[in-house]
Amino acid sequence: MFNVTRLIHLAPGAGPDALLAELRAAAHLSGATRALVEPTLPGVRNGGDILLHLRFTGSAAWTAAAPQFAAMLDNPSVVHVDGAEYSGEMNRFETERQPGTVYRTLLLRVADDTADAVAERFEADLRLLPRYVHTISAWQLSRVEKAIGASAWTHVFEQDFSDLDGLMGPYLMHPIHWAYVDRWFDFECPEAIVRDRVCHSFCRIEDIA
After folding, report:
1. pLDDT at 184 over 80
2. Contact 42/49 with Cβ under 8 angstroms?
3. Is the separation of the CB atoms in 97 and 134 below 8 Å?
4. Which CATH number fits domain 2-204: 3.40.630.10, 3.30.70.100, 3.90.550.10, 3.40.720.10?
5. What is the per-residue pLDDT for 105?
6. Residues near 178 by Cβ (< 8 Å), separated by ≥ 6?
7. How does pLDDT run across 143-181, given as a tens digit for each residue?
8. Distance, CA of 84 to CA of 82 (rounded, Å)
9. Where are the domains positioned within the chain?
């Protein structure tokens, strides 16, 4: 699968409704197998005002659709866009977990001089989270093929959560998070490899494709 994420930051006072309607109509016709175009929920960090997430069977469909989306985002109401394009498919827990109602994505950049073995340990620690956080019903960790915005993003880590409480509580506060994962992000920790700001964004799941 080929994936596209855009975190759309609007000008102060700009209402999202008109742009949301345009983006949803384009997403519906884009050929995406999954399309989310939703306002972000309270609590995002550098997450924008609108979250656009599209999944295609291959990159050609996005190549055909991309100019239309670029034109819509070339809009006075849009002041900044962060985003990533990447390959991969969601890993799903088919039983014993509640279906997801909240989609979350994290854009991050690993330092350029990070050794491959260190980056692989970091990725392995991220992959531990879904095993222990039972409010996650699906997840994907991907390396970025094309980044836009405030940083040269290297990774996207995304999940479907049972609900907003499942993201803000059991996930962010779980011991596996602060014991294994936080050290890679904390600039005061010698093992930290994540640079620049991260984009932590989430929205309700209302698939329109």
Report:
1. yes
2. no
3. yes
4. 3.30.70.100
5. 98
6. none
7. 999 999 999 999 999 999 999 999 988 777 777 776 778
8. 7
9. 2-204
